[in-house]
């Protein structure tokens, strides 16, 4: 049976799983779950993921959710996946696990919380929350500082000093890419981090052309938001 990916391309973890499958030649059927339309709360989807979140997969009779768990599973279940994504070496794998665990409690909390409470909340039926955004920005900045000073090491292009990307690189870069929709504000946040900028470029290159294709929806949303923000300025000049 064909592997089914239940994803929303505006979701950072969904994009990571999609890119991972495309890069590694894993055949799958993409099932779009529109969060803004509440499709993650339907009885059919809750049977697949009772947590009502994307991504999730169905592989035959096997169901799984949480992007990190999904990519770990696919790395072992599909023999064509290159070892560097999630190595068989127990020590290398443990190091990658440490990055992934850190991601959920730091970078994801900061980046996701900031973007949600400055831009995306209304599209999901929630009000913007400036106080929550300010708190998330503190977590985001501290997380970027840690990536720049600790997780990115001078002896390699990728996390942990590796010369090839892992699922940790893909997860964290997809998370940071969400800042794209903030426009100049996102650029301002990232501007001090030169090592992070190079690492993002290296990850894009290592996963081309799939990285850009999967992120195209994000770029379209960015353009719509920029157009919406500039519209009042145009009217004020008339």
UniProtKB/TrEMBL annotation:
The GST N-terminal domain, residue ranges: 1-82
Keywords: Detoxification, Transferase
Organism: Cuscuta campestris
Enzyme class: transferase
Reaction it catalyzes: RX + glutathione = an S-substituted glutathione + a halide anion + H(+)
Enzyme Commission identifier(s): 2.5.1.18
The name this protein goes by in its record: glutathione transferase
Highest taxon listed in the record's lineage: Eukaryota
Keyword Transferase tagged: yes
InterPro entries given in the database record: Glutathione-S-Trfase_C-like, Glutathione-S-Trfase_C_sf, Glutathione_S-Trfase, Glutathione_S-Trfase_N, GST_C_Theta, GST_N_Theta, GSTT1/2/3, Thioredoxin-like_sf
GO MF terms, alphabetically ordered: glutathione transferase activity
Record-annotated GST C-terminal domain positions: 89-234
Similarity comment: Belongs to the GST superfamily. Theta family.
